[in-house]
Design a protein that fits this description.
Strand order of the largest sheet: 6-5-4-3-7
Number of strands: 7
CATH topology of the largest domain: Cytochrome Bc1 Complex, Chain D, domain 2
CATH class of the largest domain: Mainly Alpha
Distance between the termini: 74 Å
Helix content: 40-55%
Strand content: 5-15%
Number of helices: 11
Shape: elongated
Order of helices and strands: HEEHHHHHHHHEEEEEHH
Largest sheet: 5 strands, antiparallel
Amino acid sequence: MVCRMAFIRPFNTQRRGRRVGRENYFLFVSVAAFAWYVVTSFAIAAPAAQQQALRPAEDLAAVERGQQLMGEQCAFCHGANARGGSGGPDLTRSVLVQEDENGRQLGAFLRVGRPDRGMPKFELSEAQTTDLAAFLHNAIYQNANRRLYKILDILVGDPKAGEAFFNGAGRCRTCHVPDGDLKGIGAKYADPVVLQGRLVLPRGRAGGPPMPAYQAPNAMKVTVTPPSGDAVTGALVRLTDFDVTLYDAKTGQMRSWLRNGDTPKVAVVDPLQAHVDMLTKWTDADMHNMTAYLAGLK
């Protein structure tokens, strides 16, 4: 706006009570034009730099070399995955890293460091800095696109320890039988990732088209007993302090009641309550051992 006004103002325009001379006018126009160039150049360049960390890596070899360099030089403070360590911040959230262009800004910073904050300077070659930037940019991209994350090495547990947990501390045997309802579960869920997911969160139906939660085989059950009339049992659809709704599979209809305190009486039974209780008790070792054990039930 300043530039536009400068170009259309006549030479003898009054400005703050004084005449603007021809020399001052051209000087004003030159400064304004230069300022406009700097602002627009930055506005164009900054988004381009930020977008670099939002694209998939083109040189995977550089990413691998950068990851190795990260582990050797930076992991103690920032963690091997750059997400923060014993004393350093999460580099994937760093504005400098996010706006870096092929290691240019990152390299300039590393050559100086921040000794006042415990960040030493690093004498890395240009190639090393580029590799490190490639790894960090790829880490940012992976964080922003978690659906692309590949889970590896699920079957790392001990099947024998998993069997002992199944029959002992896990109390799984009280509801499940390896030669009964769990027979062939390892073949049914051939993907260990899916198997472990069903082990931890078995709610709903695995595979097939989506369906309402109240129609799932393991849906929560509710029994409603009005002051007058017989108790009605069905799959729980909705329960609040003001109303309760259930699905009657026999009639295929919904039934609802208004609630006033404890009237009508409502009793909820969750067939997966044992799994819900385990959510806060699972250890990594028990989870992996159980997955390895169930995967072997072919």
